[in-house]
Write a structure and sequence with these properties.
Elements: E1 6-9, E2 12-16, E3 27-30, H1 33-41, H2 48-69, H3 78-86, H4 93-103, H5 114-142, E4 147-151, H6 166-175, E5 179-185, H7 192-203, E6 209-211, H8 216-221, E7 227-230, E8 234-236, E9 241-244, H9 247-257, E10 260-264, E11 270-271, H10 288-291, E12 292-293, E13 296-297, E14 310-313, E15 320-323, E16 326-329, H11 333-341
Parallel strand pairs: 4-5, 4-7, 5-6, 7-10, 8-11, 10-15
Antiparallel strand pairs: 1-2, 2-3, 8-9, 9-14, 12-13, 15-16
Helix pairs in contact: 1-2, 1-3, 2-3, 2-4, 2-5, 5-6
The structure holds 5-S-methyl-1-O-phosphono-5-thio-D-ribulose.
Residues 46-49, 92, 153, 155, 159-160, 165, 192, 231-233, 243-244, 309 line the site of 5-S-methyl-1-O-phosphono-5-thio-D-ribulose.
Length: 343
């Protein structure tokens, strides 16, 4: 596992700037909670679990500043910092999950909060990597020898603490010698597939073929893939899956062509408080992400654009949800509940 997007080093948070990959491999240091929130919003760091881990370290930074200002009542005012972090992006539940878990420590803290909170943030980070390794094993078990796999967006080491969710399954299946070929959707408009997934798989020596989004159904029709494996930003109680825009059309097409559809995500991505995908807030980003390519405008002058960056795949189109607590085949509310209760 060569890629690590987040680390705590010499009292500050370091994030690999994913906006610049694959051309430049550069880290930025963060010492203020406002800057951490901006990094999440501007996608220096992205991917649901990675956003959550970053927010956890953001809480450490916030508490450090509050304690320096007011050691007796450092927690007063920290709600403001939580809000700053929580407002950065709306869809990935991991962001809110991590903030709540950090808040849950406050009652235990006596005096300077930094050491305690830092240990918790590091635990969230390490637990995420362990969950990914476990999902890798469980997901790879479902994949038959000689399979080819298509993935969407980047649900890899870059999107998590390390190893990845969907790419964790792919890494494990490759290590077991089961994979014929890995395909990655380029993932417009931000190009997570072309820029990030291709880069991180190649770092590990795993060959990857890019396809344009529009080629996915044809790839399936030609019998060139047996599995679609993706991550998720939020899974509802009934097993509906929010993930990068374009995931839904892959699931529809996969069912039509008899291709299997797997979602790999840790339980920190499961939101049992939303009954179905209809209740998941879907982020809409700037039209410029579509109208431009980098700094260059590519759309006809005067065109407008609609840029929802996630969609919801109904549970009925999902063959398996893989979490670190187990595999849920043909998900529904009852099975999701049973899996979540499985310690
Ligand atoms: O907009 P992004 O790049 O943050 O979207 C990321 C995704 O949609 C990933 O597939 C999802 O977060 C799962 S990451 C393990």
């Amino acid at each position: 596992m060569s890629v690590r997007p987040i680390r705590w080093h010499e009292d500050s948070l370091k994030l690999l700037d994913q906006r610049l990959l694959p051309g430049e491999v550069t880290e930025i240091s963060y010492d203020s909670v406002a800057a951490v929130a901006d990094a999440i919003r501007d996608m220096v760091v992205r991917g649901a679990p990675a956003i959550g881990i970053t927010a956890a370290f953001g809480v450490v930074i916030a508490a450090r500043s509050r304690y320096a200002e007011n050691p007796d009542n450092w927690w007063e005012g920290i709600e403001q910092d939580f809000r700053l972090l929580a407002d950065a992006r709306p869809t990935a539940i991991n962001l809110f999950w991590a903030i709540e878990r950090m808040r849950g420590c406050f009652d235990e803290i006596d005096g300077d909060p930094v050491e305690y909170l830092l240990a918790e943030a590091k635990a969230i980070h390490e637990e995420d990597i362990a969950a990914n390794m476990r999902m890798g094993e469980l997901g790879a078990d479902l994949i038959g020898a000689g399979s080819s796999i298509l993935t969407h967006c980047n649900a890899g080491a870059l999107a998590t603490g390390g190893y990845g969710t969907a790419l964790g399954v792919i890494r494990s299946a490759v290590a077991e010698g089961k994979v014929e070929q890995v395909f990655a959707d380029e993932t417009r408009p931000w190009l997570q597939g072309a820029r990030l997934t291709a880069w991180e798989l190649l770092q590990d020596g795993i060959p990857v073929s890019l396809i344009a989004e529009g080629a996915a159904s044809w790839l399936m029709q030609q019998g060139k893939v047996q599995w679609i494996v993706v991550g998720s930003d939020r899974i509802a109680a009934n097993g509906d899956v929010a993930n990068k825009i374009g995931t839904y059309q892959l699931a529809v097409s996969a069912r039509h062509h008899g291709v299997k559809f797997m979602v790999a995500a840790p339980t920190s991505t499961v939101d049992m408080n939303v009954a179905s995908g209809a209740d998941i807030p879907i982020e809409t980003r700037s039209a410029d992400e579509l109208l431009k390519c980098g700094d260059k405008t590519v759309a006809a002058a005067g065109a407008s654009a609609w840029n929802p960056v996630f969609d919801v795949t109904p549970a009925a189109l999902v063959d398996a949800i893989v979490t670190e607590r187990g595999v849920v085949e043909k998900p529904d509310t009852e099975k999701m509940l049973a899996m979540m209760q499985n310690a």
